[in-house]
Design goal:
The protein contains two helices and seven strands; from the N terminus they run αβββββαββ. The chain has 96 residues and is mainly beta. The longest helix is centred in the N-terminal third of the chain and has 8 residues.
Length: 96
Protein backbone atom coordinates (compact mmCIF):
# COMPACT_ATOMS: atom_id res chain seq x y z
CA UNK A 1 0.00 0.00 0.00
CA UNK A 2 2.79 2.47 0.73
CA UNK A 3 4.17 2.01 -2.78
CA UNK A 4 0.75 2.78 -4.24
CA UNK A 5 0.46 5.93 -2.13
CA UNK A 6 3.90 7.18 -3.18
CA UNK A 7 3.10 6.51 -6.81
CA UNK A 8 -0.15 8.43 -6.58
CA UNK A 9 1.41 11.38 -4.78
CA UNK A 10 4.03 11.72 -7.52
CA UNK A 11 1.56 11.31 -10.38
CA UNK A 12 -1.30 13.19 -11.85
CA UNK A 13 -4.67 11.80 -10.71
CA UNK A 14 -7.80 12.13 -12.78
CA UNK A 15 -11.36 11.17 -12.05
CA UNK A 16 -13.33 9.01 -14.43
CA UNK A 17 -17.09 9.03 -13.96
CA UNK A 18 -19.67 6.46 -14.91
CA UNK A 19 -23.16 5.75 -13.67
CA UNK A 20 -24.24 2.66 -11.78
CA UNK A 21 -27.39 0.87 -12.91
CA UNK A 22 -29.37 2.70 -10.19
CA UNK A 23 -28.28 6.11 -11.52
CA UNK A 24 -25.74 6.87 -8.78
CA UNK A 25 -22.35 8.32 -9.61
CA UNK A 26 -19.55 5.78 -10.02
CA UNK A 27 -16.13 7.33 -9.40
CA UNK A 28 -12.82 5.89 -10.55
CA UNK A 29 -9.28 7.23 -10.33
CA UNK A 30 -6.89 7.03 -13.26
CA UNK A 31 -3.20 7.84 -13.54
CA UNK A 32 -1.82 10.33 -16.07
CA UNK A 33 -1.74 7.59 -18.75
CA UNK A 34 -5.42 6.80 -18.26
CA UNK A 35 -4.77 3.53 -16.45
CA UNK A 36 -7.13 2.63 -13.57
CA UNK A 37 -5.86 3.22 -10.06
CA UNK A 38 -8.98 2.62 -7.94
CA UNK A 39 -12.75 2.54 -7.80
CA UNK A 40 -13.62 4.79 -4.87
CA UNK A 41 -17.41 4.65 -4.95
CA UNK A 42 -20.02 2.15 -3.82
CA UNK A 43 -23.52 1.59 -5.17
CA UNK A 44 -26.41 1.49 -2.69
CA UNK A 45 -30.00 1.37 -3.91
CA UNK A 46 -31.48 2.77 -0.69
CA UNK A 47 -29.53 6.04 -0.45
CA UNK A 48 -30.66 9.17 -2.30
CA UNK A 49 -27.70 11.14 -3.63
CA UNK A 50 -27.32 14.39 -5.55
CA UNK A 51 -25.85 14.14 -9.03
CA UNK A 52 -22.35 15.15 -7.80
CA UNK A 53 -22.36 12.92 -4.69
CA UNK A 54 -21.12 9.39 -4.16
CA UNK A 55 -20.62 6.90 -1.34
CA UNK A 56 -16.87 6.87 -0.70
CA UNK A 57 -15.36 3.42 -0.22
CA UNK A 58 -12.72 4.70 2.19
CA UNK A 59 -11.60 1.32 3.52
CA UNK A 60 -9.61 -1.68 2.32
CA UNK A 61 -7.47 -0.88 -0.72
CA UNK A 62 -8.67 2.75 -0.70
CA UNK A 63 -7.57 3.51 2.86
CA UNK A 64 -4.35 5.14 1.63
CA UNK A 65 -6.31 7.47 -0.69
CA UNK A 66 -8.63 9.02 1.89
CA UNK A 67 -6.47 11.84 3.22
CA UNK A 68 -4.78 12.40 -0.12
CA UNK A 69 -8.04 13.12 -1.94
CA UNK A 70 -9.30 15.41 0.82
CA UNK A 71 -5.94 17.24 1.07
CA UNK A 72 -5.85 17.74 -2.72
CA UNK A 73 -9.39 19.24 -2.56
CA UNK A 74 -10.65 16.69 -5.07
CA UNK A 75 -13.58 15.70 -2.85
CA UNK A 76 -15.28 16.93 0.30
CA UNK A 77 -17.54 15.28 2.80
CA UNK A 78 -21.21 16.19 2.99
CA UNK A 79 -21.38 15.28 6.67
CA UNK A 80 -23.70 12.38 5.84
CA UNK A 81 -22.82 8.70 6.20
CA UNK A 82 -24.27 5.35 5.19
CA UNK A 83 -23.67 1.94 6.73
CA UNK A 84 -22.29 -0.49 4.13
CA UNK A 85 -22.02 -3.91 5.72
CA UNK A 86 -20.23 -3.15 8.98
CA UNK A 87 -18.46 -0.01 7.74
CA UNK A 88 -19.71 3.56 8.04
CA UNK A 89 -18.94 5.23 4.70
CA UNK A 90 -19.00 8.99 4.11
CA UNK A 91 -21.11 10.49 1.38
CA UNK A 92 -18.81 12.82 -0.52
CA UNK A 93 -19.11 15.45 -3.20
CA UNK A 94 -16.79 15.66 -6.20
CA UNK A 95 -15.18 19.08 -6.55
CA UNK A 96 -14.84 19.65 -10.29
Amino acid sequence: MIVMKEKIENSSINFKFKTYSNGQLAVFLQDYNGFPVAEISIKDDIVDLNIDEFIFKDYSENSTLVNLLFDMNMIRTTGRFVLIGKHLCPICQVLY
